[in-house]
Write a structure and sequence with these properties.
Number of domains: 1
Order of helices and strands: HH
Keywords: Coiled coil
Helix content: over 70%
Oligomer: single chain
Shape: elongated
Largest sheet: none
Amino acid sequence: MLDKKNILGIIQDHQDEIDQLEYELEQARQWCMLESVKSLSNRLSYLKDNQYRYKLQAKAWGLIDKAEV
């Protein structure tokens, strides 16, 4: 469950996965792996959207600065 105690960890976990997927996406593009590119792009979009929402909530709780969102 999302709460003040774990939201920053969730945001960091999302960032770690985003970084990994961006690397994998670049590799898939270089090798013209169209199915993989689409799948990775969808997952990346999902994670970025969720991370943004979590950052907004963390900002509302006063856990992060406006500049971090």
